[in-house]
């Protein structure tokens, strides 16, 4: 392994431990991520005083996990929508199945589920169970955020939102567009203009742009504002005041340069 590959793997292991563990398991270098137990099994009203807790680990493939969830769901939560189940409920159903099964029973359940999937039986339910499984047993971090599919028309744009579906809104002529943006709540939809920035010796500073979130709720913006990094959003007058202060600062920089000249001549 090269030094660059080693540094990349170290970075992933430090910042994304679950993903690193899963990838290591795929390479045969280590165990897969471990989940559970969510709650002890065999809890009931007439149970004698517990003496020990016995834990059994099942190392399973993604499809075996789906089969276990399907079996546990059919036993305990068949009337509940898998998309509304909590992570704890999902994991409990899986663990309940494994607590009451054997490797041979798991093989039989996998074959049964595989046959149903192949025949297309209960397709919508199985897809919902897959989504539930991915929520409860993530192996590589959260899924990537969905990306906008904007449709532009004469002065409008149609966007996806997380809470209001597809919406059509006015698209200002100065907005640079929404292609490639993440899908957000309607309140967070923002029009952004071209960014201007200062640069010296490869260092950029004070990038500024016009922006407007017409549906903002926490800080409503009835009109577009200017965004300058490290400053609150600004009105036109506030932006002019900042520009005036920068002009004064230019004079200070020239004065400091002259002072530096005098110091250097004295030290020469």
- Helix content, binned percent: 40-55%
**How many strands?**
7
From the spread of the alpha carbons, the general shape counts as elongated
Helix/strand order, N-terminal first:
HHHHHHEEEEEEEH
How many helices does DSSP assign?
7
Q: Report the sheet with the most strands, covering strand number, pairing sense and barrel closure.
A: 4 strands, antiparallel
Mean pLDDT: 82
Strand and helix map with partners:
Elements: H1 3-15, H2 17-26, H3 62-76, H4 87-99, H5 103-119, H6 123-136, E1 151-152, E2 156-161, E3 165-170, E4 191-192, E5 196-200, E6 203-212, E7 225-228, H7 236-267
Antiparallel strand pairs: 1-2, 2-3, 4-6, 5-6, 6-7
Helix pairs in contact: 1-2, 3-4, 3-5, 3-6, 4-6
Report on this model:
Helix content is 43%, strand content 13%. The chain has 268 residues and is of the alpha+beta class. The strands form 2 sheets. Strands 4, 5, 6 and 7 form a 4-stranded antiparallel β-sheet that branches. A 3-stranded antiparallel β-sheet has the order 1-2-3, with no helix packed on it. Strand 5 (196-200) and strand 6 form a beta hairpin. The longest helix has 32 residues, at 236-267. The chain is elongated, with a radius of gyration of 29 Å. The chain starts with a helix and ends with a helix.
